[in-house]
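Illustration: Alpha-methylacyl-CoA racemase.
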Amino acid sequence: MRVVFSYYWTSGLLSMLGRSSEKPYAPLNLVADFAGGGLMCALGIVLALLERSKSGQGQIIDASMARNLPLSHQCHDDDDDDDDDDDDDDDDDDDDDDDDDEEEEEEEEEEEEDEEEEEEEEEEEDQTSINFFKTLSNSSSSVGSDHTGQPSLPTCINEPWPSMTLSPESVITEVEGAAYVGSFMWKSRSLGLWNRPRGENMLDSGAPFYDTYRTSDGKHVAVGAIEPQFYDQLIKGLGLDSSSLPPQMSTSDWPELRRTFTRVLAQKTQAEWSKIFDGTDACVTPVLPLDEARSHPHNRERGSFLVDAQGEVSPRPAPVLSRTPARPCLSRDPVIGEHTRSVLEEYGFEPAHIEQLLSAGVVECNEAKARL
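Result:
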């Protein structure tokens, strides 16, 4: 728990989280512990098992949280497939009994009635899902706040249902997935970690020893000293006398303790505090911007970031498998329309037809220019 901030600042992500002119703040434990740690480790295990099914060999999974933090989330549309009943009976014999015909007609009518009932049930289920999601989109949440400081949901959730491209089934899956990722918060309510209002708990900026602070040069440091032994190192590094401070876990004294930490940490630069706490277990670390994260000694040694042919920096693919690591693509990204002609040729278009499409403005072709 105490080192979550360390994962954030090492990856450079913590410097990007928060409002303009306000200090950075991490989104609970969702990115580092759960996504960058548990989820990526589980993915590595699955990938290694899949590869083992072909090679029969095992390998080591390197699931560094700091490397795994830069994640992207992609929504997928689920298309509903309609099942058509094509089991029509062909009447080839003109001598069938009338009774047989009547029985067949009765069976067909019963089948049609059953199908209509199933369709009505499916429509009711879909409408229930839509109503459930609309209820969620109109409710408040602790995931964020708007410019007034009031709780707010992500923009995609606040969109009205007709403008969304997700089906009810995929939306409910997203809701359940998000809720499951936050299982720790649900369980923590009974542990005293999340039983207070938003912003007053141990890990949501409520505790002064688990937060970020501005330094004298306008930069920030992250503090994550929850455990007593680490908290003692923090107090020592700040040059404070523990006997003159309130107890660490006295929540009623947290505002006073925060004011003390804010005042002291604002007296030195980020570099000065980094030097003071370097090599200690105080869990005080500098909040690095993205351009500095790449050059950090830890990331340089592990090769956590790559530079492509265009000079753009991006995280190395994660997790890393020792024997069959992912091979990142470092080639230049194509410009829009660069491969229009080759794609059309692959689909069988004749050169003359392609020229007609280009002349009419139906398609565009932008050949890449060499950079001299």
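Reading the tokens back as a structure: The CA atoms of residues 13 and 290 lie 7 Å apart.
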